[in-house]
Amino acid sequence: MAKGIADKGNASMINLHNVDCMKYMKDVPEKHFDLAIVDPPYNINKAMWDKFNKKEYIQYIVVFMTELQRIMKDNSSVYLFHNDFNQLSKIQTRINQETNYILRQFLVWNKRFPGSSNKGYFDGFVEIDGLRNYQKLAEYICFYTFQDETGLTKIMDSCVFPVREYIRDEILRARGHIKFKEINSILGTATNGGGVASAVLSLKKTVPAMITKEHYNILREWLNNGTEYEYLRTEYEDLRTEYEDLRYYFNNQKTHHSVLNIDIEKKMSEHETEKPITLYKTLLKYSARPNAKIFDPFLGSGSIAIACYDLGFDLTGCEIDKDYYNSAVNRFKNHISQGNIFQNEKQHIFQNETSFKLTKKE
Fold it and tell me: From CA 100, how far away is CA 105, in angstroms rounded?
């Protein structure tokens, strides 16, 4: 099983609601979700639901993002889709001023790339005679967290500082001094500078690194002549677990950078702006830790429901339009009826006019 992917055998719930997401969020407790993938209307006149007064639209998105912030965990991540940079720049300015979101990366979803099944089709748009602008064949995705680049500064006091202090005390207890060059030599790392020892143990570091388990075990053996030192072992492992749990999750797949070359897929719903299932799966693989609770406030075509189902993640989704909601539910039902995830396993499906719920029976 790939790291970061939920265990399909424990796949839990797909909850889809025909409701205004703003109304739904008001009943959600604080710090509830681990990851939100947000694909709101872009206000570009794509359809009747995509036409707003610009000032009111920007205000709505900012109010929405503020309420979303309340129900996201401190170590959560949020992806926000858009494709109008002028509007997005105004939204981002307000987000910087009025919320705690930190823009970690600005992603571009590229729809026309070598090897794309749609490249020939899109080439026709680019080569239109009389075109006096660059043809837009991409969309933007803002990647937010509520922590800094490393996710460390908010958890220094609870995890990293105690580990640094404890290891320093143990080195002084056993050796009587702390020499970074000597420690680096023991660790098998570069000894011509501060190196790993300085990064982990220097009191001058306001944001010291958390020592890896491998280096920790080497130091433990060095300090105690190979003897198990139970407190040192359990204290470190407890703090290391807390450290990983408190940081925002990012499982680098080493397959993408800030430009995502992802094909448009065959249209499978009634929605005008259906997103590829592969696009959602890519974001989930990077940012959804095992057993993560995913939230999609603008369900649309329901592609994310299929992605979460296939990868084994919990999902709560909202769609205000009844026709789009029904289309998304029917699309999802059709997908699970082909069944390779829950094949030969019992399912429990509940549906009424405003909600759909699927759980695996244990």
Answer: 15
